[in-house]
Design goal:
Helix 3 links the parallel strand 4 and strand 5. The protein has 4 helices and 5 strands, in the order E-H-H-E-E-E-H-E-H. Bound molecules: coenzyme A.
Length: 145
Amino acid sequence: MSKIVIRDFTPADFEGLSEVWQLTNLGNPARGDNLQIIMQSIAMGGKLLVAVDESNKVIGTNWMTFDGRRIHLHHFGVHPDYQRKGIGKMLTRESLRFVKIKGYQVKLEVHRNNLPAINLYKQFGFQYLGDYDVYIIRNLSKIEA
Ligand SMILES: CC(C)(COP(=O)(O)OP(=O)(O)OC[C@H]1O[C@@H](n2cnc3c(N)ncnc32)[C@H](O)[C@@H]1OP(=O)(O)O)[C@@H](O)C(=O)NCCC(=O)NCCS
């Protein structure tokens, strides 16, 4: 495999990153994850790591947002052509380095059937938290206020 580098996201990566998100089903437009949101999350103390190949093409991503209390790990994906080559592990290792330096607990959501991701998270020490379901309000017009 060609040389893979893990580095911080820059705005020039957005197109390549969006492609990886589409291919790995992380890029649902309903989530509203655009460049402005990404840059805002980084300014607030988060970090978006990308894996790039020798030609600087984005082939993996791992996004950590920080809310002042915890780090939330999401948008973890590796381009399908590059999966099962250890890039997910590289991204996770680098992400947890950031978590440790920052000094806050790290949390994530994963679908219960997503065994590739669950296997990987467990290898790195993540523990199942319990039978929680996940709720969200996407459409703010649903809020009666
Ligand atoms: C999860 C994902 C990022 C893993 O990336 P990857 O680069 O393929 O992972 P690696 O090659 O570093 O593999 C690391 C570990 O993941 C697990 N794993 C990866 N693919 C797997 C598969 N198809 N089946 C079972 N375990 C798998 C294994 O434990 C593996 O370690 P091992 O090779 O020592 O057994 C990748 O499968 C992906 O992009 N999936 C789609 C997006 C997604 O679901 N993201 C997670 C959202 S919570």
